[in-house]
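Practice problem 4.
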């Protein structure tokens, strides 16, 4: 393990991929392969995939319902209809097994992919939905693979994949929101190579209790993701996590 100085690993940005987290650590290509294979086996279970996609669609539906009420357009009305059908599909889908998807009485994941594409096309110009659209765009990667190559997600979702990262978030925390953090301080050695400190912070806009608690939850998720990657990679030494909120 390298001894990182504060200046060498000082950065900030949005935690939105495993590749972003891996930049903090001295992880070899072989270790990245181990991380990806191990994590993929855990997070590509149908219940995780289905739950993450449902979470994205429910959040998107809430926003679209408001748009349809306040400034309806042909596109938002159509998007509203597609989401309702999409959520019904996910509620009835019990597997993405390649045998099950071809049977007459099972949901077709090809239909789910088409709904995803149609929904994204409806929302291309809706800037207010940019986050939800980007999340769904990422999940489209996995839908292509489920439909086209019969459940080979564990072999094809890459380390920088937005789809894989969303699945990891849902698997660990039951949510799909990225986190904006400051890695100032980075990671450095505390002792003789047996313990390392990861220092991370977040800027909040107010010291109101609700905002502070929300910031703490987001920071805890970001730190937890780093610890998850560290442990999965099998890096020697204990990782000590330290988080700070700035107002």
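Answer key:
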């Amino acid at each position: 393990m390298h001894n990182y100085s504060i200046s060498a690993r000082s950065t900030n940005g949005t935690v939105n991929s495993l590749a972003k987290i891996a930049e903090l650590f001295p992880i070899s290509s072989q270790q990245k392969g181990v991380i990806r294979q191990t994590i993929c086996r855990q997070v590509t279970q149908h219940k995780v995939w289905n739950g993450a996609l449902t979470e994205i669609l429910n959040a998107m539906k809430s926003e679209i319902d408001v748009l349809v009420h306040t400034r309806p357009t042909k596109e938002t009305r159509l998007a509203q209809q597609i989401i309702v059908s999409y959520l019904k599909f996910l509620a009835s889908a019990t597997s993405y097994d390649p045998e099950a998807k071809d049977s007459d009485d099972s949901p077709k994941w090809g239909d789910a992919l088409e709904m995803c594409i149609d929904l994204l096309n409806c929302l291309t110009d809706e800037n207010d939905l940019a986050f939800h659209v980007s999340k769904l765009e990422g999940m489209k990667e996995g839908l292509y693979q489920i439909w086209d190559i019969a459940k080979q997600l564990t072999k094809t979702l890459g380390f920088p994949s937005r789809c894989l990262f969303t699945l990891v978030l849902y698997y660990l925390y039951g949510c799909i929101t990225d986190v904006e953090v400051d890695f100032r301080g980075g990671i450095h050695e505390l002792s003789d190579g047996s313990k390392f400190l990861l220092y991370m912070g977040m800027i909040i806009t107010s010291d109101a209790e609700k905002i502070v608690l929300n910031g703490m939850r987001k920071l805890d998720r970001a730190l937890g993701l780093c610890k998850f990657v560290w442990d999965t990679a099998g890096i020697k030494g204990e990782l000590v996590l330290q988080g700070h909120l700035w107002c």
